[in-house]
């Protein structure tokens, strides 16, 4: 299969390209598209055969359910049986945007989408290209991140091409994703909403909307099994081994370690903040920006991991952050990227 990439200007969207993309979706094939979080690998969410192709192209385990992306509330009422008051409040405040809600599914949704569960994950993205693409396709679009399962999520069209060239029909290139990490997932299928995956919307943000909202046990203790199937897999992993350092002396410890690995003949990559980056001129280094700008850090995290792999480093030493606010979502990704090799210095 030949994978074609088409560039789209967000400020002047060419409907002709989106029409072509939607025909591919309606024919049961795959199109990767930008969203405000990461690039998604889309298929017609009501077509089992098309959704099956997502699992094959990504190498995704079949027990990991997909998120259905919608462009308006009318689409939602077809897909779910019951929407409780908390879910309505969250939609009101956070849609369109980077929030996925788990709701009781209707019988219109193929089993493959939900991996056999009686609940379904639904999101209304705010990205203009994503929204218009779903609208023109006129069907909910099932879309996990458009990467090979286990790899860092794609935040640029070229990341999608690297992983899925020859496996999908089309990539819509809308530039780099604004947020850079995946949506916050909240289970609203029962009475008390639970955050299953932290994302751009943080626990603190959502508490202001639903004071009784809680975090899944697995987000409080690393020992607990996550309730969301996707959270239990090896994930977001670069090819290089990765170690994460946190604390006021982290950069100095990283320098010591970087020199040690270099002396062992390894190519070392370093990810730290602007105030420490000059320590690492002898290594392949990239900055997470200013220490207090966590939005920027989330925007560049996956891009940086992919660039480290593109540069062929053997080991990545990365500086982590405290788990407050967006820091919790960032560390959720970094812990998985580093297979829990986290050091508090
Ligand atoms: P992604 O692969 O980034 O699209 O992530 C989708 C996330 O939503 C994964 O962690 C899934 O396990 C989770 N998810 C999707 N559907 C459900 C569901 N019905 N119940 C719980 N988690 C779900
Ligand atoms: Mg993913």
Please give a handful of descriptors for the protein shown.
five-stranded parallel sheet, 2 domains, globular, binds magnesium ion, binds adenosine monophosphate, alpha/beta, single chain, Rossmann fold, 11 helices, twelve-stranded mixed sheet, about 350 residues, DHBP synthase
- Estimate the helix proportion, in percent: 25-40%
Q: What Rg is obtained from the alpha carbons, in whole angstroms?
A: 20 Å
Overall morphology:
globular
The CATH class name of the largest domain reads Alpha Beta
Q: Classify the secondary structure makeup into a structural class.
A: alpha/beta
Overall pLDDT metric:
96
Q: Remind me, CATH topology of the largest domain?
A: DHBP synthase
Largest sheet: 12 strands, mixed
- H/E series: EHEEHEHEHEHEHEHEEEHEEHEEHEHE
Question: Which ions, cofactors or small ligands are bound in this entry?
Answer: adenosine monophosphate, magnesium ion
Stretches where pLDDT falls below 50 for ≥5 residues? Answer: none
**CATH level-4 homologous superfamily of the largest domain:** DHBP synthase
């Amino acid at each position: 299969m030949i994978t074609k990439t088409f560039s789209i200007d967000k400020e002047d969207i060419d409907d002709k390209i989106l029409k072509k993309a939607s025909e591919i979706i309606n024919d049961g094939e795959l199109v990767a598209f930008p969203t405000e979080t990461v690039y998604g690998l889309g298929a017609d969410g009501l077509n089992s055969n098309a959704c099956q192709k997502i699992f094959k192209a990504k190498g995704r385990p079949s027990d990991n359910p997909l998120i259905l992306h919608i462009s308006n509330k009318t689409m939602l009422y077809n897909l779910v049986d019951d929407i409780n008051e908390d879910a309505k409040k969250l939609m009101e405040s956070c849609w369109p945007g980077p929030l996925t809600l788990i709701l009781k599914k209707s019988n219109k949704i193929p089993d493959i989408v939900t991996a056999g569960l009686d609940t379904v994950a639904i999101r209304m993205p705010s990205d203009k290209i994503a929204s218009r693409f779903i609208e023109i396709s006129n069907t909910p679009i099932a879309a996990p991140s458009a990467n090979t399962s286990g790899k860092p999520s794609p935040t640029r069209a070229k990341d999608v091409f690297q992983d899925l060239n020859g496996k999908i029909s089309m990539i819509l290139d809308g530039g780099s994703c604004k947020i850079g990490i995946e949506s916050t997932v909240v289970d609203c299928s029962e009475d008390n909403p639970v955050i299953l995956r932290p994302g751009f919307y943080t626990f603190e943000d959502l508490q202001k909307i639903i004071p009784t909202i809680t975090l899944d046990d697995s987000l409080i203790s690393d020992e607990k099994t996550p309730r969301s199937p996707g959270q239990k897999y090896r994930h977001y992993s670069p090819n290089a081994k990765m170690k994460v350092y946190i604390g006021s002396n982290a950069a100095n410890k990283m320098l010591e370690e970087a020199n040690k690995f270099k002396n062992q003949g390894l190519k070392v990559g370093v990810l730290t903040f602007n105030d420490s980056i000059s320590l690492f001129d002898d290594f392949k280094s990239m900055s997470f920006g200013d220490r207090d700008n966590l939005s920027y850090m989330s925007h560049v995290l996956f891009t940086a991991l992919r660039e480290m792999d593109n540069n062929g480093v053997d080991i990545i030493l990365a500086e982590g952050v405290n788990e407050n606010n967006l820091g919790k979502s960032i560390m959720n990704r970094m812990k998985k990227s580093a297979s829990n090799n986290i050091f508090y210095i």
